[in-house]
């Protein structure tokens, strides 16, 4: 249906709004009941496969439905604006948990484009750092190209202010958006995460040459290049050949609970020390 055909008195639409309101209410209650949790996925250095940090990934621990992945609640949280509160909760929880890790390990937190439209992001980041005591350089904020597509001048100014706090900025899922390469010139990202669709197809020569080009541009700008979604030894070898500096994927570990992340650090460290 075109926009002009849209009718405010369409009963099916009213049902949709009602259902959305109900689901929004459920998400809000989940936040009050403390049902959200973070899982952590290790990121390893390509050179020696030593763990360099973890990405924090939201999960909803629902009493009846079990563990619910972000794809099932982040879109609604973004539509309703609840992502702002949820995102701030994730920032605080990730900083609080990361402060107990060895201090050379970083934590990466995903920041929604919606959070960038709000004026409070810088304050939320500063607040999470101050209350946890986490050193700013240990916090990395992951943003996607969709953030940059909005009001780019304002967003770039905001990114610069965040960087001035000492935190690092990573461009997530790189290669899936539009006019990607120009973004690399316009903002000095500390890290570029190449989307896992490129890693999946890395044995294809055309895909490999795209990865090589991203690595070339990114590393010339001093950015760390992370390959996302590394699932096989073949992919791992290939992304290293193409010059990626970090790897993340099921080959190393799936996202795990905070306490399993601590065990992962312990066993991983002793293996590397040996
Ligand atoms: P992302 O930031 O790109 O996170 C990586 C996703 O890829 C995670 O899915 C992770 O489990 C998955 N992954 C990692 N390694 C592999 C692999 O080897 N193979 C495959 N097939 N998948 C792999 P997850 O946890 O379901 O998160 C999905 C997305 O939800 C994230 O993508 C991110 O965009 C969003 N998200 C998660 N947590 C947050 C959050 O706290 N705030 C916001 N705004 N978004 C979040
Ligand atoms: Mg991410
Ligand atoms: Mg990603
Ligand atoms: Mg993604």
TrEMBL record:
Residues 20-269 form the EAL domain. It comes from the Bacteria. Coiled coil: none annotated. This is Diguanylate cyclase. It comes from Methylobacterium tardum.
């Amino acid at each position: 249906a075109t926009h002009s055909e849209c009718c405010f008195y369409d009963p099916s639409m009213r049902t949709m709004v009602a259902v959305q309101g109900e689901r929004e209410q459920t998400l809000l209650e989940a936040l009050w009941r403390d049902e959200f949790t973070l899982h952590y996925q290790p990121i390893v250095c390509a050179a020696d496969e030593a763990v360099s940090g973890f990405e924090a990934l939201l999960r909803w621990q629902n009493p009846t439905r079990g563990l619910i992945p972000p794809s099932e609640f982040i879109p609604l949280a973004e539509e309703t604006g609840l992502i702002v509160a949820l995102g701030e909760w994730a920032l605080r929880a990730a900083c609080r948990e990361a402060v107990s890790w060895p201090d050379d390990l970083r934590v990466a937190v995903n920041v929604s484009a919606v959070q960038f439209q709000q004026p409070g992001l810088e304050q939320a980041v500063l607040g999470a750092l101050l209350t946890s005591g986490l050193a700013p350089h240990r916090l990395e904020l992951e943003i996607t190209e969709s953030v940059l597509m909005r009001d780019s001048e304002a967003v770039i100014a905001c990114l610069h202010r965040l960087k001035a706090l000492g935190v690092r900025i990573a461009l997530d899922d790189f290669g899936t958006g539009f006019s990607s390469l120009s973004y690399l010139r316009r903002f000095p990202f500390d890290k570029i995460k190449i989307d896992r669709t490129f890693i999946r197809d890395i044995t294809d020569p055309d895909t490999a040459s795209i990865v090589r080009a991203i690595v070339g541009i990114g590393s010339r700008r001093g950015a760390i290049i992370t390959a996302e979604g590394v699932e096989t030894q073949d992919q791992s070898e290939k992304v290293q050949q193409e010059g990626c500096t970090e790897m993340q994927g099921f080959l190393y570990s799936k996202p795990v609970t905070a306490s399993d992340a601590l065990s992962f650090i312990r066993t991983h460290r002793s293996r590397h020390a040996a």
